[in-house]
Amino acid sequence: MAGRTNTPGQSVSQRLLAVLDTFDVAHPALTLTEVATRSGLPVSTARRLINELRAWGGLERLDDGRYHIGMRLWTIGALSPQQRGLREAALPYMHDLFQATQENIQLTVLEGTQALCIEKISSTKAVPTLTHIGGRLPLHATGVGKALLAFSGEELFSSVTEAGLARMTPHTITQPGRLAAALAEVRTSHVAFSYEEMTLGAVSVAAPVLGLNGRVLAALGIVAHSRAALDRLTPAVRTAALGIARWAT
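Structure tokens predicted for DNA-binding IclR family transcriptional regulator (249 residues):
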């Protein structure tokens, strides 16, 4: 994929990445115009780059004319050594949790100032969630996010709070002091909770997957209906996270 660029200082590869960056969990499918607007590229340039990405397999066109991420990118992403090893170690435990709870089971890793979902098991009986594999979640409003943030140091905490704690629901923690207190409890108990802080009607409990050096590798979480008794799910998710850590490190 090559060509000339019209914007000084911006290479073809930077423009291709700008096109791919327009897609996220909130925008999994976009029209040509939306890609151009979100990437800041002229429509003609966006069209050319989209066609090149389609030919390579990085994007696919839906019947309604919109585009979404292609299977080739998913295949390449799955080759990431960290994610592959974590997924292989985690899947047996995730299946056990799912069989026992019939709720959403999520495995996430830290990516920048967000939690990236790298595996999920669910069913039509589970509470609906906005999370998809490859989707990102806020660290301050989710169980898995708090489990990651609690063990990631003061620098990340400062970055997250200085950027502003977005209110996802009326229950979201938006005060840095309250969040700091909640994370202190997570570091003590190795369990994090979210009570309708991300989605109304849904609660979650999560546990960090820690390496031998205490570095957080991932977070394993259960997302359930708000009527669920999280205290009954806590020992299971904590035990599963410990099991994953033994195999992943």
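The beta strands are 59-61, 67-69, 104-111, 114-121, 136-138, 192-195, 202-210, 216-225.
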